[in-house]
UniProtKB/TrEMBL annotation:
CDD domains: CGS_like. InterPro entries: Cys/Met-Metab_PyrdxlP-dep_enz, Cys_met_metab_PP, PyrdxlP-dep_Trfase, PyrdxlP-dep_Trfase_major, PyrdxlP-dep_Trfase_small. The modification N6-(pyridoxal phosphate)lysine is found at K195. GO terms for biological process: cysteine biosynthetic process via cystathionine; transsulfuration. GO terms for cellular component: cytoplasm. PROSITE patterns: CYS_MET_METAB_PP (PS00868). Pfam families: Cys_Met_Meta_PP. This is Bifunctional cystathionine gamma-lyase/homocysteine desulfhydrase. Belongs to the trans-sulfuration enzymes family. Its cofactor is pyridoxal 5'-phosphate. Keywords: Lyase, Pyridoxal phosphate. GO terms for molecular function: cystathionine gamma-lyase activity; cystathionine gamma-synthase activity; pyridoxal phosphate binding.
């Protein structure tokens, strides 16, 4: 089954009892037992809920894993995955991971004795060098935020496997429509489904898919024990979002290519970051491991002042954090998503004060380009 078909026919389709073509929203917490201890597959909705299960089956199919799990947010999903590890374990992470992931590792899990080191995984030799005797996992984000850095997932997973590490990939930016880390050798893939999977800026959710059954058992045990589950209505919203993920990503891609073409030729823009550009670092890797380059672009203008002017004068780009929805969004990482990172560290990472990030939406590309052009020349 091709991806667009899988998005619509994967998982559990419709309702057997009534013929309803959409999976019903089972807004329920508990289930009648036929005899004590004899239930019909569901006993309590933290453990399992039919609507959530339908979503979990769907994301499992799309990511080509053995089991899927839905959580109340991307961070709840990552929290559950990190609970696989023990006090004294060490985790390696991409250095410019999502800010919330950085915070979780350095301000929460550190208190439980789980140690984290952040390295530039876009260069594979850095991974090998950073592995210690207690390293248990490699956590990759590719492409990253906001510089769209690319890590060779298959190469990284190979190194991790040879040292007995699990490979975890945050696939939020690429989406399961363009990239499937489990087929590249990763063990666990995570999503902030709040972004492209939901796609309409109306739900906060997280998803996890594992490659093997045993890991699936462990994650289910943690999901049920710690309880960060996604509710039935939000599960249904994600299934609704997933049905159009394919056409949405194709359109995001088309719009983005036109916008990147415009940005690279604008005199006031010194640099454009987009994995689809031939000169983007690791462009060849991105081309090999993903079927598309996505709808996120960053570009540099001369100063913070100019950047502020641009974001305040656009009409169709909403000034907001987050990404991946039908409406175009614009932000200044140094002042917004990455403001909590010290200025020195931002400089090291290459995040200048004049860097602008856009999440290209599904508006007409010509309108978006005119809008950017007008605000750049303002
Ligand atoms: C938003 C985001 C997260 C966190 O997800 P929430 O749903 O906001 O909890 C994690 N990783 C990436 C790459 C994100 O963009």
């Amino acid at each position: 089954m091709k991806k667009k078909t899988q998005l619509i026919h994967g998982g559990i389709v419709g309702d057997e009892h009534t013929g309803a073509v959409s999976v019903p929203i089972y807004q329920v917490s508990t289930y009648k037992q036929d005899k004590p201890g004899h239930h019909r597959g569901y006993e309590y909705s933290r453990t399992g809920n039919p609507t959530r299960y339908a979503l979990e089956e769907l994301i499992k199919d799309i990511e080509e894993g053995s089991r899927g799990f839905a959580f109340g947010s991307g961070m709840a999903a990552l929290t559950a995955v990190m609970m696989l590890f023990n006090k004294g374990d060490h985790i390696l992470l991409t250095d410019d991971v999502y800010g919330g992931s950085f915070r979780l590792m350095t301000k929460v899990f550190n208190r439980f004795g789980i140690e984290a080191t952040f390295i530039d995984t876009s260069n594979l030799t850095n991974i090998e060098k950073a592995i210690k005797s207690n390293t248990k996992a490699l956590f990759i984000e590719s492409p990253t935020n906001p510089l769209l850095k690319i890590t060779n997932i298959a190469g990284a997973a190979k190194i991790a496997k040879s040292k007995g590490l699990l490979t975890l990939v945050d696939n939020t930016f690429s989406t399961p429509y363009w990239q499937n880390p489990l087929t590249l050798g990763a063990d666990i893939v995570l999503h902030s489904a709040t972004k492209y999977i939901g796609g309409h800026s109306d739900v906060v959710a997280g998803l996890v898919v594992v490659k093997d059954e045993k890991l699936g058992e462990s994650i289910h045990f943690i999901q049920n024990s710690t309880g960060g589950v996604l509710g039935p209505h939000d599960s249904w919203l994600l299934m609704r979002g997933l049905k159009t993920l394919g056409i949405r990503m194709e359109e995001h891609e088309k719009n983005t290519h036109q916008i990147v073409e415009f940005l690279t030729h604008h005199k006031d823009i010194s640099k454009v970051y987009y994995p689809g550009l031939k000169k983007h670092a690791n462009h060849e890797v991105a081309k090999r491991q993903s079927r598309g380059f996505g709808g996120m672009v960053s570009f540099e203008v001369e100063s913070a002042e100019k950047a502020k002017k641009v974001v305040q004068n656009v009409k169709y780009f909403t000034l907001a954090e987050s990404l991946g929805a039908v409406e175009s969004l614009i932000s200044i990482p140094a002042l917004m998503t990455h403001a909590s990172i010290p200025a020195v560290r931002r400089k090291e990472l290459g995040i200048s004060d004049g860097l602008i990030r856009i999440s290209v939406g599904l508006e007409d590309a010509e309108d978006l380009i005119n809008d950017l052009n007008h605000s750049l020349n303002y």
